[in-house]
Design goal:
globular; 311 residues; TPST-like; five-stranded parallel beta sheet; alpha/beta
């Protein structure tokens, strides 16, 4: 049953607008998107040898147990079509003769979509952008949607949630943003037919145009419900999900980043910013070897603190 309908993966650097795009697309009458993030696709797939022959029902049950235990809150709170009942699902999947981990995942998500009366299933976990070749191996006809936001604005938002995201300073934020965006770009160069980039600024400033282009890429008819998407009342979600789109939610870095922070960020990620058309405040920005060492040491110390006192 794997990939009867092409799955949709929303990816991007942290705080790039992936959640906003997730809620917009899930409002389309044909697209099912859980409201959380799965996180388990890659680690479970990398453990495939542990699960043995999935045609054996007990092995299938073991796999389903590990999938559920990896993200119980995701399946209990964010999966809105079916209940993740291991016994029922193992019976259904066994009857369908699913024999691979991607088949199992795809079938469960497709069941969830069907229960929501939708045709396509999708998923939003930003860090999957670092594993897109593996995602394509798992789901050969997957459609990858990469949302890109000015990294300096991402950095401000990342550092507001530094302990949640474990991104501790401007150097760390620049490195992370650059790594994520370059990973997506490199994949897209080699896989142009299944990869689509959408800029956060365009999504806010010209949503109809941007989303019509996205729907064309997905080969799905555009529907106004994407613009008039269902808002979230959850306090933990991004504020943009509780109010209309705000075109001015850009270039926050001009008022919220110091000259030193801008210098560090642009020294680390300036070429990628320029490639995507973002104006640099200092095209000649550089970072000394000493500052590299100081920021790296700070990251390690914060990790030690997190592991011993906050975890």
């Amino acid at each position: 049953m794997n990939n009867i309908n092409p799955p949709i993966f929303i990816v991007g650097a942290p705080r790039s607008g992936t959640t906003l795009l997730q809620y917009m697309l899930k409002s389309h009458p044909e697209i099912s998107l859980p409201t959380g993030e799965s996180h388990f696709f890659i680690p479970i797939y990398q453990r495939h040898a542990e699960f043995g022959d999935l045609k054996v029902k007990e092995n299938l049950k073991f796999l389903l147990t590990e999938i559920y235990n990896a993200r119980p809150d995701f399946f209990d709170d964010d999966f809105h079509g079916i209940k993740f009942d291991i016994n029922i699902l193992s019976d259904q999947l066994h009857a369908l003769k699913t024999s691979t981990i991607p088949d199992v995942i795809s079938t469960i998500f497709q069941m969830n979509a069907t229960a929501e009366h939708k045709k396509y299933w999708g998923e939003k976990t930003p860090y999957y952008i670092l594993h897109l070749p593996l995602i394509k191996e798992m789901f050969p006809n997957a459609r990858i949607v990469h949302i890109i936001r000015d990294g300096r604005d991402c950095a401000i938002s990342m550092l507001e949630r530094r302990w949640d995201l474990r991104i501790y300073n401007i150097y760390h934020a620049a490195y992370t943003w650059n790594k994520y965006v370059r990973s997506g770009k490199d994949f897209g160069i080699n896989n142009p037919d299944c990869y689509f980039e959408i800029k956060y600024t365009n999504l806010l400033n010209s949503p109809h145009k941007s989303l019509k282009a996205l729907c064309k890429f997905l080969n799905i008819e555009y529907n106004e419900s994407i613009i008039n998407f269902e808002r979230s009342n959850e306090s933990g979600k991004t504020p943009l999900l509780t109010r209309p789109l705000q075109a001015n939610n850009t270039q926050k870095w001009r008022n919220h980043m110091s000259i030193k922070e801008l210098q560090i960020f642009e020294a680390m990620a300036g070429s990628t910013l320029t490639e995507y058309g973002y104006e640099l405040s200092n095209p000649c920005a550089s970072i000394s070897k000493f500052n590299h060492l100081v920021y790296e040491a700070h990251i390690k110390l914060c990790d030690i603190y997190f592991n011993f006192f906050r975890n």
